[in-house]
Design brief:
The chain is an all-alpha fold and 1242 residues long. Helix 11 runs antiparallel to helix 12, helix 22 packs parallel to helix 24 and helix 38 packs antiparallel against helix 39. The radius of gyration is 39 Å and the shape is globular. Its main location: nucleus. One of its GO terms (biological process) is SCF complex assembly.
Length: 1242
C-alpha cells in the first residue's frame, strides 16, 4: 500500500514539471497504474490524483490534456463516490467556460465518465447522473452558445440511453429543457434534441410520454412554420422507432395529421412523412392495420414522383438514343433558374420505396392484393434514373418475392397448391414484365444496379424454380456483359456467377443447351482468374455446367464433345496447383469428380493423369474429406469409370480413415467403400478387403447408430459379393453385432441394415456360420440370461432387445424357409412350458415375426397356444401374445382375421389385448399397397366390430378402437370418413370422444389420399370444441393440436372460428373445481385442468405453424392468464413467453409490464414450511422456468430499458438464491450456441 502511494506521489510531482514531456510520461504512467485491477488508493492519494488530473485538463499541451481525459475512465471505478462527484462537478463547470478547447475536453471527459460508470452499483450511477443532469438541463435551456448546447444534448442522450431508468425524478425537467429546442433555428440542435428525446421515451412514465406526444400533435395542428413542422414529424418517427410498443395508442391521432402534411408541396416534408409511416408500419403492426391501404396508395403515388424529368415511353427500341436526346434538351435549359442539384424529389421517391418495402415485409396477409397493385407499379419503376432510389425499388420487390416463398411445411402438402394459387400464379403471369424491365438494366454502367438485378432474379428463381425457362435468351447478354473484364469489379463477377449457379440448378438442362457456346467461355475464363474468390465461385458453376451439358439421369441429344476437353483441362490446372486457396482446392476436386463422373468415357486417355492426383489429395488431411465425396461420385457413375489404377492404394488409405476421430470422414468413407464393393467387386481380392474389415468392429456400437448402419450395409455388400473376405467375421465383428442387437437404442434404418446383413450372411454359407449356428448365437443372449439367473448377475435384457433379436431370427428363417416350421414348433414348446417370462416373451415374438412373412396356418395348434398366453399374470407376456397374434394373422388374413374378430366378440375379458392384435394387423397391412388390397375385403367386418366397442367405459380400450378406426379410414377414406362424420351426431359422449380421437389418427405428417377430404370436413369434427361434454372437448383439442402440428394447411382457414373456442377453454372454470375429503384432509380437484392444458398446448403449436394468422395481442391476453394458473400450465406458458420473445418481440415489448408481474410472483413465492420434498422441487423447477422466460425477454432489443423489467432483474440480482439460478441459466443460453458454432468448423 505504502509503495503504491509513494509511486503515485512521485508521478504527481512529475506532473507539475515545466517540461511537457515529463508531464506527458507521468500521466501515461498513471494511466497504466490505474488500469491494473489490483491498485488501491488511500483517501489522500485519491484526492491528490483527482485534483491533479482536473488541473491537467487545462494544460497548455493538447496531448497532455487528451491523456488526462483518458485517465478519467479507469479512475471513476477506483475512487470513492464523493471524488467522482468532484470530478463531475468540475467537468460540468468547465462545460460552460469561455475557452472552447476546455469545453471540448470536458465534454469528452463527461462522455468517458458516463460510459465507464458501472451499471451494477446503481447508487453511484444515480448520484452522478443526477449531478450531471441538473447542470446539463440548464446549459441546454440557456441557449447562449450553440456549441455548448450541442455538446450538452449529446451527453444527455448518452446518459438517457445508458441510465434512463435512474433519472426518473429528472425526466420532467429534462423534457421541459428539451421541448423548446425542437423549434431552435439551428438544424443540428433540432437533430440532437430528437435523439435525446427518443432515448428519453424508452424509460419515462406514461404521463410524460403523453405530454410529449400532445406537445408534438399541438405543434403539428398549429403548423406555425415549416421547419418546425418537419422537425416534429421527424421527432414522432424517432419516438415510434425507439419506443414503438408505447406508440400504438396514439396512432389514430397522429395518422390524419401526417397524411395531410404528406400531400403538401414540400419535398423534404414528404420525405419525413413517409419515414414516419415506415416507422409506424414496423413498430405498431396492429394499430396501423386500418391505415395500410392509405399508406400503400401514398407510397405508390410518390414512388413515381419525378416532376423534373420526362420518361419517354417509347424507350423500347432505342433506349440509349432516347435518353441522349432528353439529356441534350436539359443542357439547353441549363441557363434557366432551375438546376438538377436543387432537385430533392429523389429523396421522396426513396423514402416511398423504403416505406413500401416495410409494408410488404410485414403484411403477409395482403400478398394477393400486392400482386394486383404494387407489383406492376414497382416493375414499371425499375427504369428509375437515380441509382440509390432504383436500388430501394429493387429491394422492395425482393421483399415481395421473399414473402411469396412457400412457408416451410406447406410444400409437403399435396393439396396446398390450390391454396397457394393466388400469389404464385399471379407472379408467374408477371414474369415476362419483370424480365423485360430487368433486361434493360443488366447492361447499365452502374455495378450496384446490375448486382440488384441479379439479386432480384435470384429471389425470383428461388420462389418459382423454372420461372425463367422461356427468357434465357434475354438474360444471356447481361450475364456475358457482367462477366467481361472491362465492365466489372470482382464482387460483380462473383454475384453474376452465383446467379448463374442458381439459374443452372433451378432449370431443366435442355433450356441451356443452345447457349452453351456462349456460356462456357466466360466461366472458363473466370476459373482461370487470379482472384481466388472468383475462381472458387466459377468452379461451382462449372461443376453444375458439367451436369447440364450431359445429364446422366435423362436422355439428351446435345452434342457435348466439343466442350469435354476444354472443361477438363481448365479444371486440371486448378486441381494440380498446390499453392492455392483451400476453398479453390476443394472445389477443383469436386468439379473434377463431377467431370469424370459425367464425361469419363470420353476422357479415357486422361484418367492416368488425374486419378493419381486424387490419391495425393486423399493422403492430405485437409483435402481428404472432399476427395472421398468426389470419388464416391465417380465410383457411382453409370459410365463405370475404370478405377483399377488407384484401387490397390486407395482402399488401405480409406481403411485407415475409419480409425480417425472425424465423424463426417467416417460416414463419407463408409459410403464410398460400399459403392466400390458394389460396382468394382471383380477388381478386389480378399486380402485388399481385409485392410478395411479389420477396422470395422469398433464402428458397430450404439454410440453412433448412423455409422453402425453404414458399416452393416458395407458388410452386407461384402457378404453378397465377396463372401470369402468374411471368413473370420466371427472373431471380432459378429460379437460386436450381437452386442448392438441387444441395444435398447437399435431401431429404424440401423435395425433394417442389421436384418439385411444376417440374410446376406446366412446365404453366403460360410463354414461355422450356417443357419443353425447363427440361430444359436441369436437365441443365446436370452437363454443365457435365464440360465444365469441362479448363479450370478447377468445383465437384464431391455424390452427392445427382445424385439430386435426376434426380428433377426425371423430374417434368418425367411431366407431358410425349409427350416421354418421346425423352428416354430421348437419355440412353441418354449411357450407351452416356459422356464420364465423372458423366454416366454422371446418365443412369442419370434413366432410373430416369422408369421408375418411365412404362412403358419398349417400348424393347427398355434392359435390355441397363443391364446393361452393371454392369461398369465405378467402384463408383458400378455402384450407380447397380442402382438404375436396380430403378426401371425398378417401371414394369412383369410384364416386368422375372422378368428380374431370372433374372439373379440366372444371374450369380453380379453377385449383390450385382442383389439391390440387387430391394431397390429391394420398397421402392418396399411403400410403397403399390396397389404391394403388384402385387407380391403375384411374392412366392413372390422369396422362393424370396432363400432360395437366405441362406447366402452375403459379409456384404454376406446383409444385402441379409435386408433384402429383412424387407420382403417386411411385405407378407404371416401367410404369411411362419412361414416365417422355421421357418428358425431350420436347421443353418447363416449362415442363422440372415440370418433374425434379416430380423426386425430388420420392426420399424419406425410401426404395422404385422405387430405383433400379431411380438409372439407375437418371443420365439422372441430365443431365438437363446443360439445357440452368436457371429455369430448378435450379430445377435440388434442385432434386440433395434431392437425396444427402435422398439417397446418388443414386448419389455417378455420382459425377465425376455432380460436375463440380455443381461448375460452383456457379459462379456469369454478364449477369444475370440487373438494374431495381424504380422511381428515380436504383436497381440491380441478377437473378442468386437463382441458386447459390441452388448450395451452394447442396455442404453443399454433405459434410455430400459423403465426401469421394469429392476433398476437389477443393471444398474449390468454398467455397472461396462463401465467397465473396451475403448475403444469405455468410451465407451458413460460415456454410460450420465451418463444414469443423470439417470434414477435415488438408485441411482447408492448405487454411487458403485464407479463413481468406474474413472473415476479412465481420467483418470490415461498413454499410453506412443513411442505414435502416434492413441493420444494416443484417450486424450484417453476422458478427456473420463470427465470428462463425472463432471460429470453431480456434478449428483446430495448427490453432492458423497461422500468418494470429492469427493476425485477435487479431484484433477482439482489436475492442470492435467485441470482445463482439466473446466472446458470444465462450461462446455459449463451454456452451451447457458441460450442455448436465451433463444432461445425471441424
Amino acid at each position: 500500500m505504502a509503495s503504491v502511494s509513494y509511486q503515485i506521489a512521485n508521478l504527481l510531482e512529475k506532473m507539475t514539471s515545466s517540461d511537457k514531456d515529463f508531464r506527458f510520461m507521468a500521466t501515461n504512467d498513471l494511466m497504466s497504474e490505474l488500469q491494473k485491477d489490483s491498485i488501491k488508493l488511500d483517501d489522500d492519494s485519491e484526492r491528490k490524483v483527482v485534483k491533479m488530473l482536473l488541473r491537467l485538463l487545462e494544460d497548455k499541451n493538447g496531448e497532455v490534456q487528451n491523456l488526462a481525459v483518458k485517465c478519467l475512465g479507469p479512475l471513476v471505478n477506483k475512487v470513492k463516490e464523493y471524488q467522482v462527484e468532484t470530478i463531475v462537478d468540475a467537468l460540468c463547470g468547465n462545460m460552460v467556460s469561455e475557452k472552447e478547447q476546455l469545453r471540448d475536453i470536458s465534454s469528452i471527459g463527461l462522455k468517458t465518465v458516463i460510459s465507464e460508470l458501472p451499471l451494477a452499483s446503481s447508487a453511484l450511477a444515480a448520484n452522478v447522473c443526477k449531478r450531471i443532469t441538473g447542470r446539463l438541463s440548464s446549459a441546454i435551456e440557456k441557449q447562449e452558445d450553440v456549441s455548448v448546447q450541442l455538446e450538452a444534448l449529446d451527453i444527455l442522450a448518452d446518459l438517457l440511453s445508458r441510465f434512463g431508468g435512474l433519472l426518473i425524478s429528472f425526466h420532467t425537467t429534462i423534457l421541459a429543457a428539451l421541448l423548446p429546442q425542437l423549434s431552435s433555428p439551428r438544424q443540428a440542435v433540432r437533430k440532437r434534441t430528437i435523439v435525446a428525446l427518443s432515448h428519453l421515451v424508452m424509460s419515462c412514465n406514461h404521463q410524460l410520454y403523453a405530454k410529449l406526444i400532445n406537445f408534438l400533435l399541438d405543434g403539428l395542428s398549429r403548423n406555425s412554420n415549416t421547419s418546425t413542422t418537419r422537425t416534429y414529424i421527424q421527432c414522432i418517427a424517432a419516438i415510434c422507432r425507439q419506443a414503438g410498443h408505447r406508440f400504438g395508442e396514439h396512432i389514430e391521432r397522429v395518422m390524419p395529421l401526417i397524411v395531410q402534411y404528406s400531400r403538401e408541396e414540400d419535398d423534404e416534408l414528404r420525405e419525413y412523412c413517409l419515414q414516419a409511416f415506415e416507422a409506424f408500419v414496423h413498430r405498431c403492426p396492429k394499430e396501423i392495420t386500418p391505415h395500410i391501404s392509405a399508406i400503400t396508395d401514398l407510397c405508390l403515388q410518390y414512388i413515381t414522383y419525378d416532376p423534373n424529368y420526362n420518361y419517354d415511353d417509347e424507350g423500347e427500341e432505342g433506349e440509349d438514343g432516347v435518353i441522349m436526346e432528353t439529356e441534350e434538351e436539359v443542357d439547353d435549359d441549363e441557363n434557366d433558374e432551375y438546376s438538377d442539384d436543387d432537385d430533392m424529389s429523389w429523396k421522396v421517391r426513396r423514402s416511398a420505396a423504403k416505406c413500401m418495402e416495410a409494408v410488404i415485409a410485414t403484411r403477409h396477409e395482403l400478398l394477393v392484393e400486392f400482386y394486383k397493385t404494387v407489383s406492376p407499379a414497382l416493375i414499371a419503376r425499375f427504369k428509375e434514373r437515380e441509382e440509390n432510389v432504383k436500388s430501394d425499388i429493387f429491394h422492395a420487390y425482393m421483399a415481395l418475392l421473399r414473402q411469396t416463398r412457400p412457408t416451410v411445411g406447406v410444400s409437403l402438402d399435396p393439396d396446398s397448391m390450390d391454396q397457394e394459387e393466388g400469389p404464385t400464379c399471379m407472379l408467374q403471369a408477371q414474369v415476362p414484365a419483370i424480365v423485360k424491365a430487368v433486361h434493360h438494366q443488366m447492361k447499365e454502367k452502374s455495378i450496384k444496379t446490375r448486382q440488384d438485378c441479379f439479386a432480384l432474379l435470384k429471389e425470383l428463381v428461388i420462389v418459382l424454380p423454372g420461372a425463367l425457362t422461356n427468357h434465357i435468351p434475354a438474360l444471356i447478354p447481361g450475364i456475358q456483359y457482367s462477366l467481361g473484364d472491362k465492365n466489372s469489379s470482382s464482387n460483380m463477377k462473383i454475384d453474376t456467377l452465383a446467379f448463374v449457379h442458381c439459374l443452372l440448378t433451378s432449370h431443366a438442362p435442355e433450356v441451356f443447351h443452345s447457349h452453351m457456346a456462349v456460356l462456357v467461355p466466360p466461366v472458363l475464363a473466370a476459373v482461370g482468374d487470379s482472384f481466388y474468390k472468383i475462381t472458387a465461385e466459377a468452379l461451382l458453376v462449372l461443376q453444375q455446367l458439367v451436369k447440364v451439358i450431359r445429364p446422366l439421369d435423362t436422355p439428351s441429344n446435345f452434342d457435348f464433345t466439343p466442350f469435354t476437353l476444354e472443361l477438363y483441362h481448365c479444371t486440371l490446372v486448378r486441381l494440380k496447383a498446390a499453392d492455392i486457396d483451400q476453398e479453390v482446392k476443394e472445389r477443383a476436386i469436386s468439379c473434377m469428380g463431377q467431370i469424370i463422373c459425367n464425361l469419363g468415357d470420353y476422357l479415357q486417355g486422361e484418367l492416368h493423369t488425374c486419378l493419381p492426383i486424387f490419391l495425393d489429395r486423399l493422403r492430405n488431411e485437409i483435402t481428404r474429406l472432399t476427395t472421398v465425396k468426389a470419388l464416391t461420385k465417380v465410383a457411382g457413375s453409370p459410365l463405370r469409370i475404370d478405377l483399377r489404377p488407384i484401387m490397390g492404394e486407395a482402399i488401405p488409405i480409406l481403411g485407415s480413415f475409419l480409425r480417425k476421430n472425424q465423424r463426417a470422414l467416417k460416414l463419407g468413407t463408409l459410403t464410398l467403400l460400399d459403392t466400390l464393393v458394389r460396382n468394382y467387386s471383380n477388381s478386389m481380392n480378399s486380402e485388399l478387403l481385409n485392410k478395411v474389415i479389420v477396422e470395422l468392429s469398433p464402428l458397430l456400437s450404439e454410440a453412433d447408430l448412423h455409422i453402425a448402419q453404414l458399416t452393416l450395409t458395407l458388410l452386407t455388400s461384402i457378404a453378397e459379393l465377396h463372401p470369402s473376405a468374411l471368413a473370420r467375421v466371427s472373431d471380432a465383428i459378429l460379437p460386436e453385432i450381437l452386442i448392438l442387437a441387444k441395444s435398447p437404442l437399435l431401431q429404424g434404418a440401423a435395425l433394417s441394415s442389421m436384418l439385411e446383413f444376417f440374410q446376406a450372411l446366412v446365404k453366403a454359407g460360410l463354414p461355422g456360420l450356417g443357419y443353425r449356428d447363427l440361430l444359436a448365437m441369436l437365441v443365446a443372449p436370452v437363454t443365457q440370461s435365464n440360465m444365469a439367473s441362479g448363479t450370478g448377475p447377468m445383465p437384464v435384457l431391455h424390452k427392445q432387445a427382445f424385439h430386435s433379436l426376434a426380428k433377426c431370427v425371423a430374417a434368418l428363417t425367411i431366407t431358410w424357409r425349409q427350416e421354418a416350421l421346425a423352428v416354430v414348433e421348437q419355440f412353441m414348446r418354449d411357450i407351452q412350458n416356459p422356464r420364465n417370462d423372458s423366454q416366454h416373451i422371446f418365443a412369442l415374438l419370434i413366432i410373430g415375426e416369422i408369421g408375418r412373412h411365412i404362412d403358419l396356418s398349417s400348424i393347427t395348434s398355434l392359435k390355441q397356444v397363443i391364446l393361452n398366453s393371454f392369461s398369465p399374470p405378467s402384463e408383458e407376456v400378455k402384450s407380447a401374445a397380442s402382438y404375436t397374434l396380430g403378426s401371425v394373422a398378417v401371414g394369412n388374413l383369410p384364416q386368422y382375421l375372422p378368428f380374431v374378430l370372433q374372439e373379440i366378440e366372444a371374450q369380453p375379458k380379453r377385449q383390450y389385448l385382442l383389439l391390440h392384435s387387430l391394431k397390429e394387423i391394420i398397421s402392418c397391412q396399411s403400410g403397403s399397397p399390396g397389404g391394403v388390397q388384402l385387407l380391403q375385403p375384411f374392412v366392413p367386418a372390422i369396422w362393424q366390430q370396432l363400432f360395437l366397442h366405441c362406447e366402452c367405459s375403459e379409456e384404454g380400450t376406446r383409444n385402441v378402437v379409435a386408433e384402429c378406426l383412424g387407420k382403417l379410414t386411411l385405407i378407404d377414406p371416401a367410404a369411411l370418413l362419412p361414416q365417422l362424420q355421421e357418428s358425431l351426431n350420436s347421443e353418447s359422449a363416449l362415442m363422440r370422444t372415440t370418433v374425434v380421437t379416430a380423426v386425430k389418427f388420420t392426420i399424419s405428417d406425410q401426404p395422404q389420399a385422405i387430405d383433400p377430404l379431411l380438409r372439407q370436413c375437418i371443420g365439422q369434427f372441430l365443431s365438437t370444441l363446443q360439445d357440452p361434454d368436457l371429455n369430448v372437448r378435450r379430445v377435440a383439442l388434442v385432434a386440433f393440436n395434431s392437425a396444427a402440428h402435422n398439417k397446418p394447411m388443414l386448419v389455417r382457414d378455420l382459425l377465425d372460428t376455432v380460436l375463440p373456442q380455443l381461448y375460452s377453454e383456457t379459462k379456469v372454470r369454478k364449477e369444475l373445481i370440487r373438494e374431495v375429503e381424504m380422511g381428515p384432509f380436504k383436497h381440491t380437484v380441478d377437473d378442468g385442468l386437463d382441458i386447459r392444458k390441452a388448450a395451452f398446448e394447442c396455442m404453443y403449436t399454433l405459434l410455430d405453424s400459423c403465426l401469421d394468422r394469429l392476433d398476437i395481442f389477443e393471444f398474449l391476453n390468454h398467455v397472461e392468464n396462463g401465467l397465473k394458473d396451475h403448475y403444469d400450465i405455468k410451465m407451458l406458458t413460460y415456454l410460450m413467453v420465451a418463444r414469443l420473445a423470439q417470434l414477435s418481440p415488438t408485441a411482447v415489448l408492448q405487454r411487458l409490464e403485464r407479463l413481468v408481474d406474474p413472473l415476479r410472483n412465481t420467483c418470490t413465492m415461498k413454499v410453506k414450511a412443513n411442505s414435502v420434498k416434492q413441493e420444494y422441487e416443484k417450486q424450484d423447477e417453476l422458478k427456473r422456468s420463470a427465470m428462463r422466460a425472463v432471460a429470453s425477454l431480456l434478449t428483446i432489443p430495448d427490453a432492458d430499458k423497461n422500468p418494470h423489467l429492469s427493476e425485477f432483474v435487479s431484484q433477482i440480482k439482489s436475492t442470492p438464491e435467485l441470482q445463482l439460478i439466473f446466472d446458470s441459466i444465462q450461462k446455459d443460453s449463451t454456452g451451447p450456441s457458441q460450442d455448436s458454432a465451433l463444432m461445425d468448423l471441424s
